[in-house]
Write a structure and sequence with these properties.
The chain is of the alpha/beta class. It is built from 22 helices and 16 strands. The protein has helices at about 35-50, 75-90, 130-135, 155-170, 180-185, 190-195, 200-205, 280-290, 300-305, 305-320, 350, 360-365, 380-395, 400-415, 430-435, 445-450, 460-480, 500-515, 525-535, 540-555, 560-565, 570-575, and strands at about 60-65, 95-105, 115, 125, 175-180, 225, 235-240, 250, 255-260, 260-265, 270-275, 275-280, 295-300, 325-330, 330-335, 375.
């Protein structure tokens, strides 16, 4: 449809088309991967301008996309954030950029998800909603299926609303585009017609990638929607591009393969316009590039090893366009396991932001996308500590390595909201210390302890104090979600009922004296001292720890006592061990 295919080498392949390549030895060194990608996008744009195939006023388009199946979870944000960083770098360089995100909502529903999500971010089982709305519509486009929650125009719209909310939560200004809307408005019409006019060439190209497509067969790259049952069918019996305004296809509604099951067709025979169906994915993706003018698109390794090779081939050798700059990102796992709606191993962006600040989450996605990582809820404190170090290096409070300094200086302003002010006076409470403070219900007491322990400077501005203490609730939510060692309520206001023998009472007083007189309190040293104090006083070690838990939590068990007490203000620990308050 254009002459841009001349950019590629033999068979349309070009050296810069390797989606796994972020930065080669010939590229200018960058501390941040998004700068390297932006260089390539700029080179693409400059080449198009030089060849006169691009309007100088045309914005750069960064694209992502998702098919509305399952729960829109944190893993889906990978594509949004990778695109965002490249878009933001390009905007820094003075370019106008659109970040488009397509909801591939004309795709058919091929199986019932076990878990769904309401608009408030609550996960629900299929049995808790109108599952029949989905079960009766297997094989139909997502936007033709009633919303099982009854709150949106369709199941596809419901899913898209959650994706939009996820992007808003991390302050990424995406332009959400519905594939269904594009088809119904006729945006796909010209490219669909072109593919059908050149279906022999389309078959020849696709036959190299799909065994079911014979280069000399009768495969037609269009999937009509059956007028009788509403399902998508893959059986086109004839094409008449002179019929109506843009042409029609005749079809028969046949069975659809859906993984390990078959979705029955109804057998209806009819005709559909080019707006009453869809292109198969391996043609639809390149068609999106053309319609939306896409310059860059990140995608997961499943596409890199599957539909990307055919996509760039179709783009160059069927549509005659140059594919966008690609970038494959590695998936990440959740607590060591793949994200899975059916297995319940998912977490939503809204859930994550109850546990940590948005800038910490954005930092996670700023790291090298070519490396597989684990997002561990259990070890979330490590991610927060890593972010705090990254931030401290940026402000010169820690030295860091040369690479760490370069990365922090380049990336830190980008992990903040776009118009946020970089403020050195910010305060970050250590995450596990914040979790300890979360054991207190009284906000004033939390601040008092944080000040006593030196985590809040005396002259700190009020906004910085408020922001620092906001981490306490997030850390408390983390403790409760994971049931970890900080998931206890410290009985601060009064001493719980207790009754200790003379030996235990003496041991507690001895431990209080150690805490009161120690020059510094090392967590592990204090843990060891608890053991030794029990032994010196002939108190069973288990019973002595239980006495501590009784005094501080009114429980028989609790967190590792030494590290916990080391984080609580010393005066209170001493008084409680002496049973004074």
């Amino acid at each position: 449809m254009s002459d841009e295919s001349s950019v590629g080498g033999a068979n349309g392949a070009s050296d810069d088309a390797n989606p796994y390549t972020l930065q080669s030895a010939d590229d200018e060194h960058h501390a941040f991967w998004a700068d390297a990608v932006a260089d390539r996008v700029e080179a693409r744009v400059e080449d198009q301008l030089e060849r006169g195939v691009r309007d100088p006023e045309e914005p750069i388009v960064v694209k992502g996309g998702i098919s509305p199946s399952g729960v829109p979870h944190l893993g889906n944000v990978n594509e949004i954030m990778r695109g965002y960083y490249v878009a933001r770098v390009l905007r820094e360089r003075g370019h106008e950029v659109r970040q488009v995100f397509t909801a591939d909502d004309r795709d058919p529903l091929r199986k019932l998800p076990r878990t769904l999500c309401d608009l408030e971010g609550n996960l629900v089982d299929l049995g808790d909603v109108d599952a029949g709305a989905l079960g009766r519509n297997l094989g139909a486009p997502y936007t033709d299926i009633p919303d099982p929650f009854g709150c949106c125009d369709s199941y596809g719209d419901h899913f898209s609303n959650i994706i939009q909310d996820s992007a808003d939560a991390v302050d990424v200004p995406i332009e959400l585009v519905s594939n269904t809307d594009l088809y119904e408005r006729g945006e796909f019409e010209d490219v669909t017609r072109y593919v059908l006019e050149n279906r022999s060439r389309a078959r020849e190209v696709l036959s190299s990638y799909q065994d079911k497509v014979d280069a000399d067969g009768d495969y037609v790259p269009f999937n009509p929607i059956c007028a009788e049952c509403g399902k998508i069918t893959e059986t086109v019996t004839s094409v008449d591009l002179d019929a109506g305004e843009a042409g029609t296809v005749d079809y028969r509604c046949t069975d659809m393969d859906a993984g390990d099951r078959t979705i029955d067709g109804c057998g209806h025979e009819g005709a559909a316009t080019l707006r009453e169906g869809k292109l198969p994915w391996r043609f639809e993706w390149p068609a999106q590039w053309q319609i939306l003018g896409v310059d860059f698109e990140p995608f997961g390794k499943d596409h890199a090893e599957g539909s990307w090779p055919s996509g760039q081939d179709v783009a160059r050798n069927v549509l005659g366009i140059e594919p966008p700059v690609p970038m494959v990102y590695e998936w990440f796992t959740l607590d060591g396991e793949p994200f899975s709606s059916s297995e319940g191993n998912v977490i939503l962006v809204s859930d994550v932001l109850e546990l940590l600040e948005p800038e910490v989450l954005r930092y996670f996605f700023a790291k090298d996308p070519s490396r597989a990582r684990d997002f561990s809820i259990e070890r979330l404190d490590q991610l927060v500590d890593e972010f705090d170090r990254f931030e401290a290096i940026y402000f010169g409070e820690l030295e860091g390595t040369e690479d760490e300094r370069e990365f922090a200086e380049r990336v830190y302003p980008l992990v903040l909201e776009e118009d946020a002010e970089v403020r050195e006076e910010r305060i970050r409470l250590p995450y596990t210390f914040a979790a300890v403070l979360g054991m207190f219900d009284d906000p004033a007491l939390r601040e008092e302890v944080a000040r006593k322990e030196g985590h809040i400077p005396e002259n700190a501005p009020e906004w910085a104090v408020d922001a620092a203490l906001a981490r306490v609730e997030r850390a408390r939510n983390w403790a409760r979600r994971t049931g970890n060692e900080f998931d206890y309520e410290l009985k601060r206001s009064e001493i719980p009922d207790h009754e200790f023998d003379a030996a235990t009472t003496a041991a507690l007083s001895e431990l209080a004296e150690f805490v009161a007189t120690a020059e510094t309190i090392d967590p592990e040293e204090l843990q060891g001292e608890i053991y030794e104090t029990a032994k010196r006083n002939d108190v069973d070690v288990g019973d002595f720890f239980a006495a501590g838990y009784r005094l501080f939590f009114d429980e028989e068990q609790g967190p590792k006592l030494g590290p916990f007490l080391a984080k609580v203000d010393r005066e209170f620990v001493v008084d409680r061990l002496r049973r004074d308050r």
